[in-house]
């Protein structure tokens, strides 16, 4: 959630920031209105308690009884107001940072830079779904037969390619101080709310197990962030960095009709995710650090890409700044999102009560996330390294794990 004191002092800033993110700025007004009523009631309760204590000392039994009855009536009212206020605060999104461009949607995103030159083919290049099926490594037909649309089987060299990408990411990222972990893929609603993903119809894109009050994660960060809920880091331990390896699940609500072919936009996929808890002064530096790692991985693979900086309207509720790395897909002749990295500043840490201690005082950490690899780079490799005969060259950096330099139909 946002800083309550700052919200009280600068309401117009939060109204504008909320509107810039394409959320209703009335959420700020509602929270502040509840806060005024709540604080007045708190003050009334405190005065009644003080009077009750005084009556007890003076042994004024009748007055003390009357005051206790009043307090008893106000208790539930205050409790209800506290709940309403907490819920109202949860509706206010994290303001975008000052360097983020104001825009309504993805059309307002900025291309920061590009790397690599798209390959010029001397033959008619094909899409990843054609290549994947012909090579026998991606089977969407049987995936749909067993589980429905947007599921697939990854087979043979496709599995080897995914494992090679994971090992490659592990080799690079672990050296940078990220501890590899396999986090749970089911978390409580409370944990998901703490990460800021339930509000604003966020649950629509999640698989929810109502019977167990659990949610399947859509990204590893959702289960990594709550690991340290309610904890305080000693300053010397920061930064704390993790590399999560897990399966992720998304309903892809609102994406019907998009990417219906192949395995680009699916309900289940595997992912390697970076996550950091850092000192607030190091937040921006850590964000650029994560971005540099993601760029390094794509450069070593040899996939041309562009870095897109999200405008305010494309950030979502939690992120204060976000970069997408979009790889070139020659079969489609366009750049598509492969990885991304976001900073949520102290938005998630306030919700989860994650702090650090410095000079006898505590403050909230900054929390950041960044994707090393999902399964999408497999699709980019198929398209960028395809050959006329339908085979696909394995990027050199992956060959030691693949045990081969080419993927071809047996």
UniProtKB/TrEMBL annotation:
Ligand binding (ATP): 250-252, 266-269, 337-340
Domain of life of the native organism: Bacteria
Organism: Candidatus Woesebacteria bacterium GW2011_GWB1_43_14
Class of the enzyme per the UniProt entry, highest EC level: ligase
Alphabetical GO biological process terms: seryl-tRNA aminoacylation
UniProt name for this protein: Serine--tRNA ligase
Binding site residues for L-serine: 219, 250, 273, 369
Domain Aminoacyl-transfer RNA synthetases class-II family profile: 127-395
SUPFAM superfamilies in the record: Class II aaRS and biotin synthetases, tRNA-binding arm
Pfam family, one: Seryl_tRNA_N
GO cellular component: cytoplasm
GO molecular-function terms, A-Z: ATP binding; serine-tRNA ligase activity
Site (Important for serine binding): 371
